[in-house]
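Lecture 7 notes: from sequence to structure.

We start with a single chain of 262 residues. Read the sequence below before looking at the structure.
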Amino acid sequence: MPETTPEVVTSYSETGGVGKTTTAVSIAATAAMHDDKRVVFIDLDPRAAGSKWFNVEPKEPGLHVGAILGDEDPEGWAEELAVPSGWHPNLRVITSDRNLSLREKDNTDGLETRLRASLVGIQADLVVIDSPNRQGGPLIISALHAADKVIYAASPTQDGVDGVAGARKTINQYRRNMERLGVDPGLEEVGIVVGNVSEVVMSRVAKAAIDDLRETGMLLEPIIPARTIVQEARLTGDWYGSFRKGDPVVKAYTEIMRKVVR
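Now the structure, written as tokens:
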């Protein structure tokens, strides 16, 4: 097959529990299932929440994303390490591991470019990175070096608003650092996805949070509706779109995906 240049999108927030992994998984899954794109999901979060949701294991012990970051010359490794998701033939996964957290203290020169190098020759139209909720650091910088676009995930809470604000500060600092080096960061802020929003009775806190996020001018519509099937499917390693109750969430994320992915 000919070499491709995939579009690379990372999901980011500096607060945990606001839907970052759900957003990343949903964009990856809807792109594969509804737009027939070849997708590779990279779990760059030491919690490995995405890997657990997909219920996948690396080809061999140790062949997770940490192997890419730990090698001086990982060019082409992403294609080798990606494993079938089991959800759809177009969707593969590069898993994470809790040991990845050790990379947060790794100051090895050039580490931040290894994830990008690993994507050379990957057979994919889209790569989705689930980044950790860190304030900078080697893992986040690795994700930003690899990505073309960043999408912010938020819940309708003050924590959700704060997580986006912190993430945007990190992105701005990254851009300034790249510009000081004379490098075009080439990283587009696509927008903010707000998930798990009640359609029945929206609290004043939720309304205020959404208003705050809308004032940034980056809020992506539609708002993602809350459905218990999402968490239920996540616990069992299933795609919530396989269940009729998940249809409204799939529809909303598909609309979002088509605004994010070219």
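The mean pLDDT is 95. Keep this in mind for problem set 3.
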